[in-house]
Amino acid sequence: MAAFAAIALTSCEDDSTDNNNNGGSGSTEIVPVSGTITSDVTWSKDKIYRLDGRVLVAGNATLTIDAGTVIKASPGSGAFASALIVTRDGMINAQGTATEPIIFTTLADDIKPGQIASPNMDPTNNGLWGGVIILGEAKVSASNDNGDDVSELQIEGIPTSVNALYGGSNDADNSGTFSYVSIRHGGANIGDGNEINGLTMGGVGSGTTIDHIEIVANQDDGIEWFGGAVSLSNVLIWNCGDDGLDTDQDWIGSCEDFIIVSPDGSAFELDGPEGSVNRGTHQFTNGTVYAGSAISDLVDWDDNTNAGVANVYFYGWSAGYMDGIASFGGDGTGNNANWEYTLTSGGMPVDSVFKGADMSILTEVAKNANTVGHTGNFGYTWASQSGSLSAIGL
Fold first, then answer.
1. Which long-range contacts (C-beta less than 8 Å, at least 24 apart) are formed by 76-80?
2. Mode of pairing for the β-strands spanning 142-143 and 149-150
3. What string of DSSP letters covers 46-66?
4. Fewest CB within a 10 Å sphere: which of 16, 66, 302, 369?
5. Between residues 178 and 263, the one the model is more confident about
């Protein structure tokens, strides 16, 4: 899609049968949405909203999404991958609740408003649409092909023909509120192995509120930050195909109270500044990591990464896991402390599993007898309501 028409909200469908072509709506009205939103719009929970291709919020418009609303994305990859993009001059006001989260999913999902667990989708189905991208005007540390510092750039996964720039000079920038939201089955390939993350944030400022976020079965990373200063809390990553939490370009916020259930990639992929500027550090605190059988690294720093990981419980890896911790501590500016772990029965010893780490911060505990880890409430999530969290002791 090279061009975008005005938002299409006037042509609605009232389907009367459940099937995957209408997203299992039953008698719920389906509102197709495409193009660019340029005036204030509210999406309500009595309808299902269908993303047809890339949908942008721009022109100082605010997209309000009521608690309990279900948004389903049409299938497609490459230029036809569906995604919601909140541009630098748009706002998002998506405030779900603990009993009525907002759900982004695929059109193949038969879920209806009022449901949290999908009636037909497997929580490992991925790559069926794009994802959610929020862009802001906070600072980034990046460079161009000539090695010169740049203050803004195009977000990955979106062609330059689309207004998807991020970055600027305002670390306190406000992109809105994104709370009690579940994003499922995304990460469609847009070409050359480049997928969209479940939630991507580019230059998002500290004035933005983002909390209680569940990412389920994204083909690429669960959440990725590109610079900015926004802080997150109460985050759950479940069954993503690459990294759980990924940082780039000198993000200086924090993420607290999180769970990563990761079958693949790294639980943390922590990258630092890409330009000459180092503005501070980013911090992960109070988390639980359940490592799947194919996980690559529990924590992967770069040598220049300004990040810390503290008060985290690690367990669940396969008996053969021995990749260790890559470039432990990065540049040393973050707080890395109070790691608890449970060794896998019959598996490798601690100095192999956490090879490269500062062993003084490690404490062995019995399975699920940890004294550090997440302190959040994840009862609103599909992972919790399906019993998958309780099955691993959470």
1. 76/129, 76/188, 77/127, 77/188, 77/189, 77/190, 78/189, 78/190, 78/191, 79/1, 79/2, 79/159, 79/190, 80/1, 80/53
2. antiparallel
3. TEEEEEEEEEEE-TT-EEEE-
4. 16
5. 178
Q: Per this entry, what is the length of the chain? A: 394
Instruction: Please give the residue that has the higher pLDDT: either 195 or 63.
Output: 63
C-beta of residue 252 within 8 angstroms of C-beta of residue 219? no
| DSSP code of residue 315 | E
Rounded Cα distance between 6 and 8, Å, is: 6
pTM of the model: 0.93
Measure CA of the first residue to CA of the last residue in the chain; give whole Å.
43
Weakest mean pLDDT among 6-10, 66-70, 160-164: 6-10
Residue 182 in 3-state DSSP? strand
Nearest CA-CA partner of 149 in 249, 229, 272 = 249
Distance CA 311, CA 325 (A): 16
Q: Residues 6 or more apart from 67 whose CB is under 8 A from it?
A: 45, 95, 96, 97, 100, 101, 102, 180
Could you identify the residue written with the tokens 């992960």? 284
d(CA 280, CA 306): 7
E strand intervals along 38-145: 41-43, 47-57, 62-65, 70-73, 83-86, 91-95, 102-106, 132-135, 142-143
pLDDT for res 192: 58
> Which tokens is 381 given?
């999530």
For residue range 264-308, list pLDDT tens digits in order.
889 999 999 999 989 999 999 999 999 988 888 999 999 999 999
Q: What is the identity of the amino acid at 388?
A: S
For residue 157, the one-letter residue type is G
**Could you tell me if 371 and 249 are in contact, meaning their C-beta atoms sit under 8 angstroms apart?**
no
